[in-house]
Design a protein that fits this description.
Blueprint: H1 2-32, E1 54-55, E2 60-63, H2 66-79, E3 83-86, H3 89-108, H4 110-120, H5 126-144, E4 146-147, E5 161-166, E6 169-174, E7 179-180, H6 181-196, H7 205-214, E8 224-226, H8 228-240, E9 245-249, E10 254-256, H9 264-281, H10 284-312, H11 314-318, H12 320-337, H13 339-342, H14 355-363, H15 366-380, H16 387-404, H17 411-437, H18 446-457, H19 461-472, H20 477-484, H21 489-497, H22 499-519, H23 523-532, H24 560-580, H25 585-593, H26 601-610, H27 631-646, H28 654-670, H29 681-698
Parallel strand pairs: 3-5, 4-7
Antiparallel strand pairs: 1-10, 2-9, 3-8, 5-6
Helix pairs in contact: 1-10, 1-12, 3-5, 5-6, 10-15, 12-15, 14-15, 14-16, 15-16, 16-17, 17-18, 20-23, 21-22, 22-23, 22-27, 22-29, 23-25, 23-27, 24-25, 24-26, 27-28, 28-29
Length: 715
């Protein structure tokens, strides 16, 4: 019973999980789609009506455009008279405070004040008259009102009008009928001066100091203040009273004839019809039909993805993590698009949809990236009002994103791609707007700001790639370049411990990379794999020829079986070291496959020659494998064997190099080392030619420089 369950699980678990992931993604996206009917007509201002003559199917109001509503709202704000409250208690409080403070001020400065009294008046009631004048002025000013203006009204002129609340009533006032704080201070100080110099008519420094000592600012406290709560209420009421409509269309009324030009007035009517139509069709009775139609559309799109992966990217289809990643990033982009429903005025073109093809291209290929991008754009188009414009702008931007970041190995590449995408959006939007409107002045300039923000947000692709690498075990070109850097800790250690192996790895990387370019493989991956394929030799460096000092060979102390075991163990040691340093799984694949299931031929043949009558245990002399299973690992196997063998050539001429390459690769083919790798015989032939050319360039014959012959001495 247990065996049956295990067999069932091994047979159906992955297919079932894959179908579940597709189904759950379909359901989530269906849930996110707007639950409204879809208007059957596409139209663009300034273009002919391509459908049949449109007759109004029912009565509906003509809604004002957002520009009209904004204009009316701005007009209301412009003519709105803000509300202010009068505080009646301040007047009495301030006048009483002044009456209490004034005698002490006079007493405190009586010596100075006596001089002013002798100069300007001999009347003993002189300062009492000044105090009385200030007191009367305060009463008069507070009776009119001292106002403090909020920041938004600081630039108001004297003709500015406001509503002053007194009791249960609000009356209109002009700003000129009230005092600002500076005006109130000026009024009181001017009255004091007039009282003091009424006889002489002259003003000196003593009067100025006297007014300063009075500290009149302490008695000027605004009693008319802005009523924020009342203003919010009044503005809300005004906004609510703005009519959303500007007319009505009756059922049976002709809206536009076939071939007629769609002008701004017609667009307004068509927008209103679409709004009413989608509202009517989204009623409860139609909801389940709408939901069913949306589910069917999304389901069919994801069936298309399923079939595409099955027939054209079987490697991705077989990997649950790869399928999960593709579905997840599609879902994330749809979630961003759904923000349009939550925030009605959300600038849709800020969303960096081009991130999707860039990331998928980084981990897979351009064909899959573009296919998934088109599917995502088609789904996201359901969230926009003008699906045609959205798709028209997004498709070129996605193509440019993939072309400009074909190989992303530097941060500057992302900046360049962002700039090109902004330019693409801008050019296509400008051309589309000119085609529609025929007038450059009607172009919405704010769209260019959205495109710029889109490009800036595109820079997030760099950290996103790092996150997805860690989440799904992928490997990007950026990481591969970092791994190939000879300053990497493992490679620095390798250069010190096994200098010969280190140089061998560099040469293998050079050879393999050229073949990868020729065969359409990933050159960055091949080079990184080459740098690490022999790191296991660091466990016992002197047991490998390239690291041995002249005349010193530790294998002379071992049997052929033990020597083979030491050499073969560099695979296992390399895997352990790679796991310890957390190297990516794809790099470890190069360590395990670069020798495949070949034999340690030197020790195997030597054993047979020494023991002709003894049957050898082949497994002792055979590498554990597996054989290469990707195009890149197959290339590395060829490059590794060819580079190592080329060092033993006695003559470096074209014929010898050709024979060497043919012999090694053909032997690997005969031993079925490439049977699991996606490489064809034609590609193997092309790889041979590249290897031959590169080796001939490396070991090319040099011209011997002639020496100068000695001249014979003349007798």
């Amino acid at each position: 019973m247990l065996d049956r369950f295990k067999n069932f699980k091994s047979k159906y678990y992955q297919p079932g999980l894959r179908i579940f992931l597709f189904l759950i993604t379909t359901l989530i996206i269906t849930y996110l789609l707007p639950k409204t009917g879809k208007f059957a007509y596409e139209y663009v201002n300034g273009t002919p009506w391509k459908h049949q003559t449109l007759i109004a199917p029912f009565d509906f109001p003509i809604y004002k455009t957002q520009a009209e509503l904004t204009s009316e709202s701005d007009s209301l704000l412009h003519h709105f008279r803000p509300y202010f409250n009068r505080d009646t208690a301040i007047k009495q409080k301030i006048t009483e405070q002044f009456a209490k403070d004034y005698p002490s001020i006079v007493e405190k400065n009586k010596a100075d004040f006596r001089q002013l009294n002798r100069k300007y008046s001999k009347d003993t009631t002189y300062f009492d008259q000044i105090g009385h004048t200030i007191s009367e002025q305060l009463k008069q000013i507070y009776s009119q009102g001292i106002i403090v203006l909020p920041e938004q009204y600081l630039s108001a002129t004297e003709t500015f009008e406001l509503m002053l609340i007194e009791g249960a009533f609000a009356e209109p006032y002009a700003l000129s009928e009230l005092y600002l704080q500076t005006q109130a201070y000026q009024r009181i100080s001017t009255s004091v001066i007039k009282t003091m110099v009424k006889d002489s008519g002259s003003i000196d420094k003593g009067i100025t100091e006297f007014i300063t000592e009075l500290q009149l600012n302490n008695y000027i406290d605004p009693n008319i203040r802005y009523d924020e709560a009342r203003n919010i209420t009044e503005l809300d009421n005004l906004q609510k009273n703005i009519s959303l409509t500007s007319g009505r269309v009756l059922a049976g009324q002709r809206i536009i004839d076939q071939g007629g030009i769609v002008d701004k007035a017609t667009v307004k009517v068509l927008d209103s019809l679409r709004r009413n139509y989608e509202s009517k069709i989204s009623s409860t009775s139609n909801y389940y039909f709408i939901l069913g139609g949306q589910f069917l559309i999304v389901f069919l799109l994801f069936v298309t993805i399923y079939l595409f992966l099955y027939f054209f990217r079987r490697d991705v289809f077989q990997s649950i993590s790869s399928v999960s990643f593709i579905l997840l990033i599609t879902l994330l982009m749809t979630l961003l698009a759904s923000l349009e429903q939550i925030f009605p005025h959300f600038p849709f073109y800020i969303i960096p949809f081009a991130i999707l093809p860039i990331i998928i291209r980084t981990f897979f290929d351009s064909r899959l990236a573009f296919f998934m991008y088109v599917i995502t754009i088609l789904i996201s188009a359901f969230f926009t009002e003008n699906s045609f414009e959205f798709v028209f702008l997004q498709i070129p931007a996605g193509l440019i994103a993939m072309f400009s970041l074909f190989r992303m190995v530097r941060r500057s590449h992302i900046v360049r791609a962002a700039m090109l995408i902004i330019l693409t959006y801008s050019l296509f939007y400008t051309s589309l707007s000119l085609w529609r409107e025929g007038n450059i002045n009607t172009i919405n300039v704010s769209m260019y700001a959205y495109f710029g923000a889109n490009g800036i947000m595109l820079l997030m692709v760099y950290p996103l790639i790092w996150i997805f690498e860690r989440m799904f075990g992928f490997l990007s070109d950026v990481t591969l370049v970092e791994l190939s850097d000879t300053n990497h800790p493992i490679l620095r250690k390798m250069a010190e411990a096994t200098p010969g192996t280190f140089q061998h790895s560099i040469q293998v990387g050079n050879l393999a990379q050229e073949v990868a370019y020729k065969l359409g493989a990933n050159p960055a991956l091949v080079r990184a794999g080459a740098m690490y394929h022999d790191i296991g030799k660091m466990a016992s460096p002197m047991f490998f020829t390239e690291n041995q000092a002249q005349g010193l060979n530790p294998h002379s102390e071992l049997s052929y079986e033990d020597s083979a075991k030491v050499v073969i163990n560099h695979i296992d040691n390399g895997v352990k070291m790679a796991l310890k340093h957390k190297l990516p799984r794809q790099i470890i694949d190069f360590i395990t496959t670069h020798q495949g299931t070949t034999k340690t031929w030197y020790f195997y043949n030597s054993f047979i020659n020494k023991n002709p009558d003894q049957e050898p245990d082949v497994s002792i002399f055979t590498y554990p494998g597996p054989t290469p299973f990707t195009l890149e690992t197959a290339i590395l196997m060829m490059a590794d064997s060819i580079e190592a063998a080329s060092r033993s050539l006695k003559k470096y001429n074209d014929d010898e190099i050709d024979k060497l390459v043919e012999k090694i690769v053909n032997k690997q083919v005969d031993e079925d080392q490439f049977i699991n790798a996606p490489i064809t015989f034609r590609q193997i032939t092309e790889a041979k030619e590249v290897f031959k050319t590169k080796l001939k360039n490396i070991y090319h014959a040099r011209v011997e420089y002639p020496s100068i012959k000695k001249k014979k001495k003349q007798k």
